[in-house]
Amino acid sequence: MNYPESQLILEEIKKANKILLNCHRGPDSDTVGSALSMAEILRNMGKEIEIICPSNIPEDLFFLEGSKDIKKVDFKTFDFSAFDLFIVMDSSTYGMVANSKEIDKPNTKIIVIDHHHTNEGFGSINLIDSKITSTSELLYKIFFDWSVTLNQKVATCLLTGIIGDTGAFQYGGVGKSTLLIAGELIDLGADKDEIIYNIYRSINFKTIKFWGKVIEMMQIDEKSHFVWSAIPLSIYEEYGKDSSAKEDGANLFFPVVKNTDFGVIMVETDKDILSISFRSRKDFDVSKIAEEVGGGGHKPAAGAKVENRFDEAVEKVLSACRKYANKKV
């Protein structure tokens, strides 16, 4: 048994008939892979499942079976009363689930499964392993605890989440266990090459042009040892409003600049809403900066959303960056 909470979660699932699953705002491969793999396992148990998300699913994940069926909803008006259980995965706060800090949790019983060390533990059962690379890897271990059989669809979804959250195994924290699990998933039929092709080698031309603008506008704070770029809504709209462009750009360009400790990309995705991604180069803990501005995440990668006028929001983030950079977190 990997986790004592696994059995508690399974007991709650057995009691439920209709179960709700989530993908967090600005969905990435780990949240989508986690939701789709859990949905497949639970449907095989005879449960009725629905997956909801406050944002659109990125097109680069449409190769995953079932991804186009994930329902975009407004959490302010969504009716939770029809569901016996809400399993929330890969989300450190309920604000990340609902895309707003102002929305209260529903009365539906919530189970939290996550790997962010900043997770608030907002469920009635919380299985949080911050030492693991991804929620998808965590689910592999939970499914092992449940003694369920993983089919090719589940294996593909889990490997997609692992590859996405590890940057194709290049980020810190990837060790023997992660690689062995990836190997097991490949043995079960997951196609590593297809996953990498879709995530990393099928980029929209406008998105690449957007990255060019991000790099053009990148600045370096030599005193505090970080790089940053702030993109207003007008530019984001001009280049197609690709919801995954910020995250992918953050992964590619912001943890690689010599003589820096971290990087931050800020994109105004809607009027007066600044979406932020932090990336560390080595051991710097960017989750502390994210928490300072209302977000969370991992030590090497974190995010936040600030609602304010563009210039003021950018200055708030930069002030937090300089504060923690000078502390050498």
From TrEMBL:
Origin species: Candidatus Woesebacteria bacterium GW2011_GWA2_33_28
Gene Ontology MF: a single term: nucleic acid binding
Residues covered by the DDH domain: 18-162
Residue ranges of domain DHHA1 in the record: 264-323
Pfam families: DHH, DHHA1
Protein name: Phosphoesterase RecJ domain protein
Highest taxon listed in the record's lineage: Bacteria
